[in-house]
Amino acid sequence: MQKRLTLLGSTGSIGESTLDVVARHPDRFSVHALTAHRNGDKLVAQCLRFQPAVAVVGDADTAARVEAQLRAAGCKTHVQHGEQALVDAASAPECDTVVAAIVGAAGLAPTLAAARTGKRILLANKEALVMSGQIFIDAVRDNGAVLLPVDSEHNAVFQCLPREAAMHGGVSKIILTASGGPFRTREPSSLVSVTPDEACKHPNWAMGRKISVDSATMMNKGLEVIEAHWLFDLPGSRIEVLIHPQSVIHSMVSYADGSVLAQLGNPDMRTPIAHALAFPDRVESGVAQLDLAQIASLTFEKPDFERFPCLALAIKALEAGGIASAALNAANEIAVEAFLARRIGFMAIADVVARVLDALPNTSAATLDHVLAADASARRLANGFVDKLTSSPASNPPVERIAH
Ligand code: NAD
Ligand code: MG
């Protein structure tokens, strides 16, 4: 039966890769809704090509512009805007599959709505799961939703785990591989002055700017440890991070008998996307076959927690439980935004996150209200720390250098 998709965040890096795979299999997939934030022009082009019933944008002005362009081209897509429209698109009875590819906390409400309406959810938006944890997992279970990981590491682990939940007894640990990002071998003292463009220049993957900065700080791997904890129901102590600069092994599962299963492939998100879209079938994704003789060597090393304090902070937040992971995520979103806007330096990202975690008392994350309140408090605190850093240039030399 053909799957009918709502694609949240269709104009982003994951969104575009998803549409590339969808376009290769019109017999298998059709599009109910596409959503974007402000990039109306790209959304219009996507609507003309995929003819969704619904398109959602962030604000009324963009909606009016998109609507006018679509009508002029004779396209009947219904244009909506705002957060409720995202939730409606994700829970529409006309769609059975939701691709969650919005970046950051903005994706939580529609992704949770997809869980509550029993959809098949292809999860790229790790921040939504990091924030809401047990609440999200319970919503999936209680409403018969199906959660399929798109994040390449988690998709790899999913492919290497036994299909039967009862057989998980034989799993000793999972090993998340990490490229180490663009600054893996750079002299730590030089990191204070790196620019947003340098931080976004990932050696192996082309991604959105927020996740690119997260990869450079390795907060991305930290968020992925938390994501893996919820997806695979394993404690942090059984989730290992291993640096693998070639990004060919996307992650591994280690078994009690000494076996280690790995999933390999070229670093192209269309592979995990195609896997999750077609699961349990396999379909062509447009990704070239792996040429191991050409790659020749695969190397591994332990992560350096001093060079990458964000990784250590995320693991600490997972161990702490409660609202700590939601606070970590919110503080990181504010700090990364400030770094990308050249308001704070690269090393200040970890500093802001650490200060927020220290300042915010850790309390229960039992309800969505708890989580949203923690998210709001952490953002407030993080904004305060960013303001302090930007108003005292002496404590933040990189911003001063950029300003001149
Ligand atoms: P991106 O910045 O390229 O795209 C983000 C998408 O979200 C865009 O369509 C944008 O319009 C939309 N968006 C942004 N803010 C929004 C808001 N406030 N409300 C509604 N929509 C909003 O990001 P990306 O690289 O595609 O990443 C998307 C998600 O997938 C992130 O959570 C990221 O961690 C995860 N992910 C990405 C990759 C990758 O290779 N890009 C790999 C693994 C996981
Ligand atoms: Mg990943």
From TrEMBL:
InterPro entries: DXP_reductoisomerase, DXP_reductoisomerase_C, DXP_reductoisomerase_N, DXPR_C, DXPR_C_sf, NAD(P)-bd_dom_sf. GO terms for molecular function: 1-deoxy-D-xylulose-5-phosphate reductoisomerase activity; isomerase activity; manganese ion binding; NADPH binding. Pathway: Isoprenoid biosynthesis; isopentenyl diphosphate biosynthesis via DXP pathway; isopentenyl diphosphate from 1-deoxy-D-xylulose 5-phosphate: step 1/6. This is 1-deoxy-D-xylulose 5-phosphate reductoisomerase. Keywords: Isoprene biosynthesis, Magnesium, Manganese, Metal-binding, NADP, Oxidoreductase. It comes from Caballeronia telluris. Belongs to the DXR family. Pfam families: DXP_redisom_C, DXP_reductoisom, DXPR_C. Residues 264-380 form the DXP reductoisomerase C-terminal domain. The keyword Repeat does not apply.
